[in-house]
Amino acid sequence: MSNRLPGYSTKLFTEIYDTVDKFLTDYNNIGIPAKISQTNATTLYYLLYAKYGNSPIANMDENQFKYKLFSVIFQYGPTWEKRLEIQDKLKSLSLENASEIYVGSKAIYNSALNPENLPKTGDLTELSYINSQNTTNYKKSTLEGLALLSSSLETDVTGEFLNKFNICFKKFARPGKTYIYVDEEEEDEI
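Predicted structure:
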C-alpha cells in the first residue's frame, strides 16, 4: 500500500486492481454474469484505470465496491459493446456516391379492390392479394448522407459508459478522514 498524506479512508482503484488479470478473474468469477467479451473487458479495465486509477472507492466495504462495479458492467456493458460495433460499421462505410449512406427509405403502397376476405376495423394483418402497387424510392443527397453519418459518429459511446462508473468512486478530492487533535487543557474546558 502506498503512503499517502493525508490518506483516504478507502482504497484506490489501482490498489484493488493493479493488474488486468485480477480484474478479469473477479469479472469472470464474482457471480454476476459476464455480458461483454473478454477483449472488451480487458479494454474496459485499461479505460477504468486511465479514468479512475487514483480515485478512492466510494464504499468502505471492498466487496460491495466490486459488486457495484460489475453490476454497472452487467447493466450497461452490452449496450456499450453493441454501440461500439455500430460505430465500427459506420466508420467502415464508403463515402463514394454508390455508398449505403446515400440510400434512403422505400415506401410501398398496395391497394386491393373487392377482397375475398374482409378486414376487421383495427385489423393490422395484410390482405392476401393486391390489385395494384406503387413504390417510392428516396435517395439522399451527398450533403444529407454525409451529415447523417457525421452526426451518428459524434456520440462518445465510451465516455458515456465510463461516466456510469462515477457511483463507484468518491465524489470529493479530499481525504476521507478528518484528524482532530485536542490537548489536555482544551479537553478539561469541554
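Summary: The CA atoms of residues 22 and 38 lie 13 Å apart.
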